[in-house]
Amino acid sequence: MSSLFPALTAGPAGRVALSFGERSLTYGELGAVTGALAARIAGRGRVAVWATPTLETAVAVVAALEAGIAAVPLNPKSGEKELGHILSDSAPSVVLAAPGDELALPLRELERVDVHVRAAGPRPQEQAAEGDPALVVYTSGTTGPPKGAVIPRRAVAHTLDALADAWQWTGEDVLVHGLPLFHVHGLVLGILGPLRRGGSVRHLGRFGTEGVARELNEGATMMFGVPTMYHRIAQALPEDPGLAQALGKARLLVSGSAALPVHDHERITAATGQRVVERYGMTETLMNTSVRADGEARAGTVGVPLPGVELRLVEEDGTPITSYDGETVGEIQVRGPNLFTEYLNRPDATAAAFTADGWFRTGDMAVREADGYVRIVGRKATDLIKSGGYKIGAGEIENALLEHPGVREAAVTGEPDPDLGERIVAWIVPADPQSPPGDEELADHVAARLAPHKRPRRVHHLDALPRNDMGKIMKRALTS
Asked: Residues in domain AMP-binding enzyme C-terminal (predicted)?
């Protein structure tokens, strides 16, 4: 199989590949350092990577892939119990870490290899096949400990090449982001993506609007972020014309990992003239759909299936929905070379995740337009509300609530109701805690924009919504 990163040996050696603040590596330097580390760990089986937002993490993962072995990225913020489970389940031979990093207790019995970013050495000959594991990424389900999704090299290559087609992504692009490096978004798309194209990535270390503006003003052409980041940008724009001007220079602004509220789309477009592109993926599938750079950036949608990806919606009984009208809600199922191969050591969970004919059950609910555009309405487990005989997606109600000037953040859940089956419950963070909007006012606001049966029946006011490391709202923590 050809290298995942041909630019390491055949690209412009003097071009900067990776920048983390003041620290950077050109392609020539990156090829030398990853070659040295790959030679050191070749044949060692799976390796754990202490995935801090640093140059060392990027070098460690690329070196593992160049050595033809699988990397297991570890979230440094994980608790000891979770880390212990991941280590016992994945059984890495070593842990790769930056010199001086203090590792969590469960890792201290594991052999450690420090990642030195100025080393050099002969590059081992890649022997890996496209079906061999590239990454084992742990993803939390609704019950039980995290499961390790085994992502093959084929899936990494296919997703990054499909996104290059959709986004017209080339080696001339310079990406800026501040995403964590233990998830698919920040690691696969945000680090491996530019390296596969022969382009550059500038990692902010920690997201901030000042850093975004600085890098876009200094030549960055693309930005990746999650909705929380774009929400902060939208809030900052009215008072920061320099930020608006910088964002206006970008070739592409991409949001992912959760739905970007329509209200934030509109505020960013109004201030910058730019439309944020959304895409849809999961740990198990990498990327499935995207708004294309040469297509319509339709706010509230995640675009169309990427090249090579098959996508369908199905009813609760598994019957495929054949007529797409933009209203009928179904579960997304996907099939293609972008899929993971298995949950490590979990044949039962792997079998349950797929249909008999190879479609992956995503658990995400969506509607699809006649022209193929997909709009996610939420997770089957937490965002599909069955109320009064209707199937209602929480996402559209959240978007409607966010259009109210008195609402800063919003989440919607369902709770049991003896009459309706489930009633709609809104959880809001008021724009002004001293003068929050009234419950009836919010219910009427939603009913006027959507339909009367979609209005919230209960409203809770919070100081903040519970979120995970990627900015996703943790709805299971919202209980009356």
From this structure: 396-472
**147 closest CA partner among 76, 93, 80, 85:** 85
Residues in a beta bridge with 392:
385
CA nearest to 70, candidates 164, 194, 6, 156: 156
The H or E element spanning position 94 is: strand 94-97
Residue 208's CB: how many other CB atoms inside 10 A? 14
Q: What is the mean pLDDT of each run of 10 residues along the chain (480 residues)?
A: 84 93 95 94 95 97 96 92 92 97 93 92 76 92 78 98 98 96 96 98 95 97 93 93 96 89 91 95 97 90 96 93 89 97 96 95 93 86 70 79 90 82 88 90 87 87 83 78
Q: Which class is 384-477 in CATH?
A: alpha beta
pTM for this one? 0.84
End-to-end CA distance of the chain: 54
Tokens for 104?
Answer: 């969590």
Classify the phi-psi angles of 303: left when phi > 0, otherwise alpha if psi is within -120 to 50, otherwise beta: left
* Residue 22 burial class via C-beta count within 10 angstroms: exposed 0-12, middle 13-18, buried 19 and up: exposed
What residue ranges of the chain are covered by domains with CATH 3.40.50.12780? 7-177
Q: At what angle do helices 262-272 and 227-236 cross, to 10 degrees?
A: 50
